[in-house]
Amino acid sequence: MSGVLGSSIARPDALGKVTGHTRYPGDLVQPGMLHLKVVFAGRPHARIVAIDTSAALAYPGVVAVLTAADVPYNAYGLIDADQPVLCGDVVRFVGDKVALVVAESKVVAAAAAKRIVITYEDLPAVTDARAALAPDAPLVHPQHGSNILGYVPIRKGDPQRAFAEADVVLEGEFSTSWQEHAFLQPEAGIAFVDEQERIVVETAGQWLHEDRRQIALMLELPPEQVVMRYAAIGGAFGGREDLSIQHLLALAAWKLRKPVAIVWSREESMIGHHKRHPISVRCRWGALKDGRITAVEAEVIADGGAYASTSIEVTKVAALFASGCYEVPNISVDGYAMYTHNVPSGAFRGFGAPQAQFASEIMVTRLAHALGIDPIELRRRNIYREGSIEPTQQPVPAGVSALPVLERCVEEAAARFHDSVPSRDDHKPGNTTFQTNGEADFHTSHLRRGFGIACGIKNIGYSFGFPEQATATVELYGGATIDHAHVRVGAAEVGQGTHLALRMIAAEILGLPLDAIVMITDDSSEAPNAGSASASRLTLMAGRAVHDAAQEALNRWQDEERPACASVQYRPPATTPLDPVTTAGRPNYAYGYAAQAVEVEVNTLTGQVQVLRVISVHDVGKIINRQQVEGQIEGCVAQALGYALLEHFQMRNGQVLTPHFSSYLLPTTLDVPIEIVPVVLELADPLGPFGARGVAEMPLVPLAPAVAAAIHDAVGVWLTQQPMTPERVLAALRAKQPLDAWS
Description:
This protein is α+β, with helices and mostly antiparallel strands. The protein is built from 16 helices and 25 strands. It has a seven-stranded mixed beta sheet, with helices on both faces. The chain is globular.
């Protein structure tokens, strides 16, 4: 053992990134390459009557214009191949791709694209997910017979009896909006045909082998004839799970047998890749006067947009977490993933859990107020413990640390929010353990301070029976002793530090210094499939595969196999689909738990909310690299703050109203809390390498409801629409009482 685990080792890729020497996909473009330009539909729903490319083809410097007729198999998708590479008959959202111009320069490609004449017949569009349920709604995909992309019922116990017997029953309605991934590096890449007649695509993504699979299907090639390579990846957050430009590069290079390149502008990126799902939740919660939550009923509707992407899986997660991280004996949830003519929705950090728990955590706090019980105490009485039965009628997977995480958050909040004073009784229906009303002139100031707390749960890894595995190969070289090792594992480094974590795991097993570990990760022909950089899974899944492969290679070396090589495919305990009749099943093999305490300041004149302090507590099982874990928490808190308060991606009648960062507002350094306190527990996960589990998504889950609770603590109103913009805060205050009462 090398003893590297738990230390804060600097990332080997850090220097190149801050000095500009690291090569991102946009840096791969070379002189002489052909350039691609996408022609987007620009309308939400229309029939393509005709496409006239003659003027574009006649433009000097244009090599080709590709349309649907040029695509061997014109369909792709992560789960359902329902999205055309290039539309030939109907467009279903403004970002649908209709044509692809290939030219000798980027300028020429852009100019020629404007000369393509497309004749459309506009069709009725449905742009509201609830309206899409109506029997007479326009159909996004008529062959499906309805706009319901997927339906997820979950049943447990007897909710109607429980509601009848409850001492308190509360109803609530919540809505969340789209969120743009806003990664630093817009989509870019190159493609060419190599000397082995393989199509090689060099870009950025989240899953080498899945990108390869979809491109091979599109080109009707065997998978081994497609090579995916990832350059440095400037962030992802789920936004690179779906194909965006990878298949376009492959198509053009394969058809023309020449190297091609594409670099999207920010505006093209904003319209061209999927977003976080807007989800609406209508719910009813019941509890007894002793604080036991006895029933939850919820309707969860997710706007999946024009194509399937991962909508059904996101909706499963949202439906599962409609009751949060609490053991409720009686549950009835109906989840709907809906097709609309909006921008497609797909994976985004949290994957349905933040949307569902924005509702569930607010409802828990409201129940506490109605019962006259401290909101923290109500959570203590109901939160998951070892052996708790989750909504799908199975025990929660072992390693349940929800309560210890909550208790540590309470402890940290008590220590750090010690300067708080009681808040105004006129807007507090229940007691709160910590109240942070700030300065002594609180009652007359227009700045009101409040405290909020919330818990969160998020699955680690793939769910509901989706095949889950990670494969790694470790090769040992040397003479009498091991000199160095090659670790082959196709795990994408999207900024989270996975490659260093995997290197540290291998070094720990092999007893080698880090610089003796060579990582081979970014080429689908060289590195085995470790699955996607998503679902907070790589530390546990790829880490466990590397751990086991390194141990097996070491065993072989010790048995005199020189050099030694071992490949291991790690498979966790199986998950299952839900039974179509009973809705019972084992949805996940592992969970991560979080609890956050926040202090906010609300300006009652402007409605602006400033988050002053955040305590973010997480159980990571075992710290691999402390600095990386804390950095993940701090970065995710900043992203969660944007989601809670600022980031308002808006569409109207199928058109994007916020296609620029001037209208889609991201948090800046002035918006980030002065104090973010990452707190890490190490309660070993039974599956992870050395007990480690993922943390990347967890901080995003509870922040928005914690902020909502803090706003309520400060000014006595509940915000149930996300983002909680100043306009919405002011509207809530006006509805409560005239605004001049707060000035």
